[in-house]
Amino acid sequence: MKQLIPGQFYGETNARIDLDGLIITDTEYTHDKVDWHYHENAYFTFILQGRVIECNKKDIYHCAAGSLLFHHWQEPHYNIKPRGFTRGFHIEIAPGWMKNLQLDLNLLQGSINVFNPDVKIMMYKIFRETKINDAVTDLSIHELLVNIFCHLKNDREKETKDWPAWVNKVKEKLHDDCTEKISLADLSHIAAIHPVHLSRSFFRYFQCSLGEYTRKLKIEKSFSLLSDRKKSLTEISFDCGFADQSHFTRSFREMTGLNPTAYRCILQQ
């Protein structure tokens, strides 16, 4: 089985940035299939455009634009790329980087399909920082990546706790139908708890309100659609469940710090 050295991916690397303990690459996938292999370092794969199927010994991930995977070091896997243009954004993390910042990877073994909208929004911010690439890019990326690992660690710790059954029911409903209008009464019926208890308890498990969490999911969905140049912002707004384009633009700017048009320009660089 082939081991890939740091910075090496199958495809054409359009850009590479080497920071202290990090290697960040923007890569076009050009191979229809890549046989079993593993990477020397732990790393993230963030699909910016297109689709790829990634398989390891336990799972098969069908990754469309917006999918985010984390792989521990030396985790064997293979890839299949369906027809069409596919582009991935990778962040490789050297063991020394984790050690210097006193971060523990023990809870993040194997491969993880990341669904946390906060983590994905931060990953898009890291991607944006690589295109700005100024005097504070290094600092910004390191700060965002530390926060990402803190979120992932917290998510894994939560999975080991005996949470009420309604928490996962509500989470699954919001992730499955974030673009559909849903009421507090609907969610409380699905969760089989009183609406007051749901609204009071939601923050404890998600660190934000129901409305904020739903908007994050909508913005996360919009990132993948913005990679499709054929789609107008109005179409994307409705596809993501916003009332109109202005509402979408305001929400996008609040969460990312820039408007959708600016992000689309960065993506097309």
Care to describe what's here?
It contains ten helices and eleven strands. α2 (117-132) packs antiparallel against α3 (137-159) and α4 (165-176) crosses α5 (184-191). The model has no long low-confidence stretch (mean pLDDT 89). It has helices spanning 95-100, 117-132, 137-159, 165-176, 184-191, 195-206, 210-226, 233-239, 245-256, 260-267, and strands at 2-4, 12-19, 22-28, 33-39, 42-49, 51-55, 60-64, 68-71, 77-80, 87-93, 111-114. Strands 2-3-10-5-8-11 form a six-stranded antiparallel sheet. A five-stranded mixed sheet has the order 1-4-9-6-7, with no helix packed on it. The protein is an alpha+beta fold.
Summarize the structure.
This protein is α+β, with helices and mostly antiparallel strands. The protein is built from ten helices and eleven strands. Helix 2 packs antiparallel against helix 3.
| Low-confidence parts | none
Helical region count? 10
- Main sheet characteristics: 6 strands, antiparallel
- Judged by helices, strands and strand pairing, the structural class is alpha+beta
**Rough shape?**
globular
Tally the beta strands. 11
Percent strand: 15-25%
Kindly report how far apart the N and C termini lie. Answer: 35 Å
The value of Rg in angstroms is 19 Å
Order of helices and strands: EEEEEEEEEEHEHHHHHHHHH
Say what oligomer this is.
Answer: single chain
Strand order of the largest sheet: 2-3-10-5-8-11
Helix content: 40-55%
Whole-number average pLDDT?
89
